[in-house]
Amino acid sequence: MTWRIGKVLVAAVLGVLASLPAYSGPMGFKDSWMAMGDFGPNWKEAFANYALTPRDAVGASALSMRSDDGLRNRQLLEATYTRLLQRWNMPESQANIWFLGGLGTLTGNDFAGSKTLVSPGIQVDYETTRVYASALARLYRAEGINHDFLSARVGFSFYEVDYDEVQPWLIVEARRMKGLSDKTEITPMLRLIHNRYFVELGVNNSSQVRANFMYIF
Amino acid sequence: MKNSLKNTLFTMAFAASLAQVALPSFAATSVKATVNGMVCAFCAQGIEKRISKMSAAKAVFVDLKKKTVAVEAKDGQTLDQKAITAEITDAGYDVVKLETVEKSVAEIKAELKGGK
Predict the structure, then answer these.
(1) What angle do CA B21, B25, B31 make, to 5 degrees?
(2) CATH code (residue B34)
(3) Which positions ≥6 away from A49 have C-beta within 8 Å?
(4) Which ipTM score applies to this complex?
């Protein structure tokens, strides 16, 4: 188990180093609430957190996962903790390392009752006003369950904008999850950012529509 | 007629001097900060939101391209540079330079846009 966790984390870090490749930050600024959603046929997630400090946020998440054939499903409700481990603020760019953790209950249609699930993960990202890259490795583990998740995103903005203008981006995401799918899901998405609004819309390589959003209160 | 004109002029002059006493004109003062790491409007909104809540802040302007945050003081009030630095830091960014300028946010905005 420990070896496997190490292997996944090392793979994530190496992936980033190789390609400088998730979301913009998974939490807002101090004393803010952030709401996030990630919706597709096989993955539906709603997540909200509150930034207690500039580096720590606590929240709750509801996630519904489904196998590619649509026969098996999982529902996860968890309490979450997000920690900004490291940030580099540079004149023309920003890079971050985040810890994401969750503890909750998992139910499914192919086992009875509920199981306790833990979901530690690491996200790294690098961003300029024109380029975005990130990678996320997250374990989803419960007794007899392994739905480990890996994703990488890379993209660019079509042009620079002023602070109060809408900025369009093209982002391509590759994600893979154990246990429910053997496919690597590739999704090109149009990302639109305007002040506190952040929306992504795309169609994956299984011709399924995906939509993501983030909002800071 | 002559007296009436005289009285009118006197009244106008008196009113004008009263207006000057009641409404003194302050030169706008702003704090201009150069900020590292400010690359995305979605992320940088924290700066605007936090600084706008400061009691002495009249207006806030964020320019991603020029890496600048400008804060204009309310008439007769002084901006606390340490507090501005703290707010930007709490929003997740690093202040690398801070200066006080005798300009309004509108003037700074025009200056930065003009230098595109």
Answers:
(1) 145
(2) 3.30.70.100
(3) A26, A27, A33, A34, A57, A58, A59, A60, A80, A82
(4) 0.75
The Cα of A27 is separated from the nearest Cα of chain B by a number of Å equal to 9
Was domain A2-216 assigned CATH 2.40.160? yes
Judge whether B46 lies within some domain: yes
What range does the domain containing B54 cover? 30-114
Judging contacts by C-beta atoms under 8 Å, the chain B residues touching residue A198 are 42
pLDDT one-digit tens code per residue, A48-60: 999 999 999 999 9
- Paired tokens of B101: 């300028």
Domain boundaries, chain A: 2-216
B16 assigned to some structural domain: no
Please give, rounded to a whole number of angstroms, the shortest distance from the CA of B68 to a CA of chain A.
11
